[in-house]
Design goal:
The protein contains 14 helices and 17 strands. With 463 residues, the chain is an alpha/beta fold. Strand 2 and strand 3 form a beta hairpin.
Length: 463
């Protein structure tokens, strides 16, 4: 008697260039990928194995490059509805200019902004998104639930870094008093979000991190107790660190030490921690991150937009620090796209004399894929194309005018113009087809975000 047919549906991709971004940077000039259910079943040179059962789709990948899906490690979705404002400010002046508006956000605004942010990233090859949301004005509704719901509907893998602030203007911070939480309220809100939404399983679509905002908007007590809460709950930890010289000066004046020393004194270095920016890091700071396994979310466009400086990414990588890429909020990176950060990371880190080898194309691709997976604590599940890993992958179209004369596909992807996405799979399911979202109506999202941006502007103007 013949064995029963394998019930798992398969997608077969052939005749495609492949950059696996595995530990050996294995690449195939023309190869195949087989997706079975939500896992990568096989990958290699030449055509797919014969006799595969239940193949529901075959794709000719001629002219394409397959890579792991891009992984965003730092963002602020709500800022989608405040793009194009305070365009000539440094970080502190930018925050002072925008906090009065941000303090007026509510649940419908946040949901629309999350949809806009997610749509822009997903259509550009992001399969795992992350949002650091830290503004919870009183009476604004279920903001965390709105963000998580938007990511679920978009069909992307998602980490919500449940942020918090408890240092307002009256305490020497920057946010308005009514835009911050109490210490107890922030901790309770974070714990409730973890309990309601965190999924630690291998193929989890939603995870939660504890994420007090930054040294100049939170108390030392919130940092210390936030770390205790995160480790008791078994979730990761995220915050901003060493972004500007003003932040370093603030830490020395208030705490008598630099940001890295301060973070270590509060329990905020470790292999369960990642920090955004880390622009102003000296040799001892980088050594501390490497020693503890603390990760970095590198946001090159935002750092340039706010004139924060150039993070020492090549030195971090040489020391063994986990580094991923971040869009950052779209009030400081109006494009909202991560695939452009591959190119910007490479170019910005080459600025300066004799830095032509600071980063290369494959290192940039690794930052946006496997590096991001390490930073989010999911490198055994996503971030490279290997049998047994989750089927989060992208087919980039590289045979159009924009890339056709560049022989090496990875060079074309990183150095060239933003490549169209022919197919993006998340958990083995299509999210983008032929450069268009299939899980959301882009025009409807554009209208909703425009309307909510106008409503927020009216409310802020009348405050």
């Amino acid at each position: 008697m013949a064995p029963p047919a394998d019930p798992v549906s398969r997608i077969v991709i052939e005749n495609v260039a492949i950059a696996t971004v595995d530990a050996h940077d294995t690449e195939y000039a023309s190869g195949h990928l087989v997706v079975a259910g939500n896992r990568i079943e096989s990958i290699g040179a030449g055509p797919a194995p014969q006799g595969l059962q239940n193949v529901v789709r075959r794709i000719d990948g001629t002219g394409h490059l397959a890579t792991p899906g891009l992984i965003n490690t730092h963002h602020h979705f709500y800022q989608w509805i405040t793009r194009g404002m305070a365009t000539d400010h440094n970080l502190f002046d930018w925050l002072v200019a925008l906090y009065p508006t941000w303090a007026r956000i509510d649940e419908p605004m946040v949901r629309a902004a999350a949809q806009g942010s997610l749509a822009m990233m997903a259509r550009g090859g992001v399969t795992t998104a992350m949002d650091h949301h830290y503004v919870y004005p009183r009476g604004s509704g279920d903001l965390s639930g709105a963000i998580i719901g938007a990511a679920r509907d978009m069909g992307v893998r998602f980490t919500l870094a449940r942020g918090s602030m408890d240092r307002s203007v009256k305490d020497g911070g920057l946010p308005p008093d009514f835009a911050v939480e109490t210490l107890d309220g922030a901790l309770a809100g974070t714990e409730a979000t973890i309990d309601a939404h965190h999924d630690a399983s291998f193929d989890s679509m939603t995870q939660i991190a504890a994420a007090p905002c930054s040294p100049f908007s939170i108390s030392t007590e919130l940092l210390c107790q936030g770390a205790e809460l995160a480790r008791r709950k078994g979730v990761r930890m995220h915050t901003h660190g060493s972004e500007t010289v003003e932040e370093e000066k603030f830490c020395h004046e208030l705490f008598g030490m630099g940001p890295t020393e301060y973070f270590e004194s509060t329990g905020w270095l470790g292999d369960d921690v990642w920090m955004a920016h880390c622009v102003h890091m000296n040799d001892s700071d980088i050594a501390a991150f490497a020693r503890t396994g603390t990760g970095v979310a590198h946001c090159p466009s935002s750092n340039a937009r706010l004139a924060a400086g150039i993070a020492r990414v090549p030195d971090m990588l040489a020391a063994g620090v986990p580094v991923g890429l971040g869009v950052d909020g779209t009030a400081s990176n109006e494009s909202g796209e991560l695939h452009t950060e591959l190119r910007n990371a490479l170019l910005i880190n080459r600025l300066g004399a004799h830095r032509e080898k600071a980063l290369d194309a494959r290192q940039a691709l690794r930052l946006g894929t496997h590096g991001g997976a390490r930073v989010l604590g999911r490198a055994d599940q996503i971030g490279s194309l290997e049998p047994g890993k989750l089927a989060d992958l992208v087919l980039w179209k590289l045979d159009t005018l924009a890339h056709a004369s560049i022989a090496d596909p990875v060079t074309a992807l990183v150095f060239g113009a933003a490549a169209p996405v022919t197919l993006s799979l998340v958990d083995g399911k299509p999210v983008v087809e032929d450069n268009h979202l299939i899980t959301a109506d882009e025009d409807a999202i554009a209208r909703a975000t425009r309307d909510e941006a106008r409503r927020l502007a009216r409310i802020a103007a009348g405050a």
